[in-house]
Write the structure tokens for this entry.
Amino acid sequence: MDAPRIVLGVIGADCHSVGNKILDAFFTEAGFHVVNLGVMVSQDEFLDAAVESDAAAILVSSLYGHGLIDCEGLRQKAVERGLERVLLYAGGNLVVGKTPFEEVERKFKAMGFDRVFPPQVDLADVAAMLREDIEARRN
Amino acid sequence: MDGRLLLSVDIGSTYTKAGVFRLEGEELRLLGKAVRPTTVDDLGRGFAEARTAALAVPGLPPAVDPAAVPVYWSSSARGGLKIAAVGLTPDLTLSVARMAATSAGGKVVRAFSYELAADDIAELAAVAPDIILLTGGTDGGNSRVVLHNAARLAETRLPAVILYAGNRKVRDDVAALLAGRDLVTAANVMPEVGVIDIEPARDVIRRAFLESIVDGKGLSGVVAAAGGREPLPTPLAVFELVRRIGERVPGWEDFALIDMGGATTDFYSHTESFYGGDTILLRGLREPKLKRTVEGDLGLRVSAEALVRSESAFFESRLGPDTPDLLGLRAYVESVSRTTDHLPADDRGRRYDALLAAACVRASALRHAGTVQRVFTPQGGFEVQRGKDLGRIKALVGSGGYLAGLADAALLLEACAPDAADPDVRHLVPNAPACYADAEYLIPLLGNLAADFPDAAARAAVAGFKPLNAPTNRN
């Protein structure tokens, strides 16, 4: 079985690159084939990369608080582009201010994201969930 | 002085040009040239006439045996090398497939993304490309669409060579689907998202041109006359010469060449596409250092009507909307697009030709160049670059019938005109380059010699460029 391919990037007008590099290194080490698009990535760029590489998941980072508006509609666009089965993960400082994380998670799930993560998270847990989700989606 | 004689011939769609060169040590010297009409019904005849005429120049030993002079040659006759590009997404594999096709000297006659439909196959049959470049998916990535497209192509027997340069994982499956067809394969043009690898496909296209297409272009008779030597597609000869000049001539690392004809305008650049920096980001594909674009709607004769349509805003800005002058231009264009060998007889015609040429230069530069857009982010102002930065181009050369005859730099400097349509977007066109004309029209001829004599051909080309002065104020 090939290493599962995942697309990684920081969405919108967000230039935070350090976390992106950490994620790239971590998931590569964890046995994923990472297609890293870097910072300031548009929705279309995520989707083009996922289509060409037949990715199992798209991992969207947002650190600057505008994640909600940047991620809106990504699921619908993915469906339109033939990516009905792609997993969508979001993580980071997704919303400005002191919104409780449960509220943020609810909003992103309502937009069609499969999993949502706060700024602090153990990446080993994320990798384990990702494997399980990919496996479940395959069957 | 002794030295080997070499003959270089370019068979264009209208004219066949020949030049005799002498290799003197490390230098190539032009001894004479000749131009004869291309004999479309039998390309070998015009070829032989041009060769005889070029070898009849004074200064050559009287008894030069034409058959003893090695011939290097290129051809763009009968429509040149026509390629249909098939990719998956328009901005990724299809975009890279176009790049591979134009870099190999081809003209992209049709481009398709996603699944080919029955209509698309009918369209392919109608345009009769020489090569169908089938790409899609990164290595190990999407295979569904490219397999669908291979199956579609298998349903209809098109006379084209099919070059598969897509997802490596399904190369064997594609070969099985297209068994019995004229199929060749190359490494994936985009093995990873954003990684461009077009050299292998370019190489296979060049070989396919020699092996399969030369006959169909009526060139096999010429191959025999040329002592068995096989031709290059003309734009590939130019592309390779531009590469040699950029790599080997000091001071010419960053330069561009515009080759404008009756039907198309080709823009070649040799310069890094992106320079980076703390506040500028590249989005989209990182374009190669050596790049060619070819514009089928920008030309002075065959394409003049298409030009006036696609660049209507330019003509209106220069002549005013609905002025008699604009109507005059339209009438002129209607007439010259039918009599393609027309040369203007009066000032008005010459002025219109200059305007058409200016539009071609300007539009071809704007389409070749990338853009920079200023964006404001919570972390401050950034610039986002898309496409290629031509800002460091130091020299700009005009080639082809019209541009070769330029008297000053004014017309070429149209390539540096900013497009003011959107104040937030800056086009990365050249910035005040030195301008030159390929006055001797040596570009394709020396391009043919560039593979065997790279340094000498590159130096001879630069030495032959005529420097153009800044325009004198005409008001």
Q: What stands out?
A: The radius of gyration of chain B is 23 Å. Chain B touches chain A at residues 88-89, 91-93, 136-138, 140-144, 190, 192-194, 281, 283-284, 375-379, 382, 384 (CB under 8 Å). DSSP finds 15 helices and 20 strands in chain B. Residues 298 and 360 of chain B are 5 Å apart (CA to CA).
